[in-house]
Specification:
Blueprint lengths: L2 H4 L5 H8 L9 H12 L4 H11 L3 H10 L11 E6 L2 H4 L3 H12 L12 E6 L11 E3 L2 E3 L4 H9 L3
Parallel strand pairs: 1-2
Antiparallel strand pairs: 1-3, 3-4
Helix pairs in contact: 2-3, 7-8
The structure holds FE2/S2 (inorganic) cluster.
Length: 159
């Protein structure tokens, strides 16, 4: 759990994000949520409730946007996102071994975040780059023709 979730979340950052805008409407939600996530590292429930109170935008709409886009995280999320492909093209070329190597190196399972908040590990059905199979993605970077032996060195580059 990161420091901000241990302490009471400070509302000052939210105040600054909203102060630069006037007449906030539902259409403004996406960039506002991006700024909130940038500031807090994720979209804390308390901050979304406060956003509802200060703007009058219904919580259902706020959560609708927050859950629609993959980029938004409702739970604390690591600085880096590691995505492994579990699709067929990657699977037949050793994708399972790469997933296991990531789990071993980071010491976490799918959907978890390391204690130091550096990495969150996810698997996806296909990364859309099957010609590079097996593929791993870290943040916005793709690494193709991966082997389990390359995983440790690759992750160390992001520490
Ligand atoms: S199956 Fe792995 S990128 Fe498509």
């Amino acid at each position: 759990m990161n420091k901000q979730t241990e302490d009471c979340l400070d509302l000052e950052s939210l105040g600054k994000i909203l102060a630069s805008r006037e007449n906030i409407e539902s259409a403004d939600l996406s960039p506002i949520l991006q700024e909130i996530q940038l500031s807090y590292g994720y979209l804390p429930k308390e901050i979304l409730l406060e956003l509802n109170r200060r703007t009058g935008i219904p919580s259902s709409q706020i959560y609708g946007v927050a859950t629609f886009y993959e980029q938004f995280h409702l739970e604390p999320h690591g600085k880096h996102t590691v995505r492994c492909c579990r699709g067929t093209a990657c699977h037949v070329k050793g994708g399972r071994g790469i997933i296991q190597a990531v789990q071993r190196v980071l010491g976490i399972d799918e959907g978890e975040t390391t204690d130091d908040m550096q990495f969150t590990f996810e698997t996806v059905a296909c990364l859309g780059t099957c010609f590079l199979a097996p593929v791993i993605m870290i943040d916005n970077d793709y690494y193709g023709n991966m082997t389990s032996g390359k995983v440790k060195g690759l992750l160390e580059r992001y520490k």
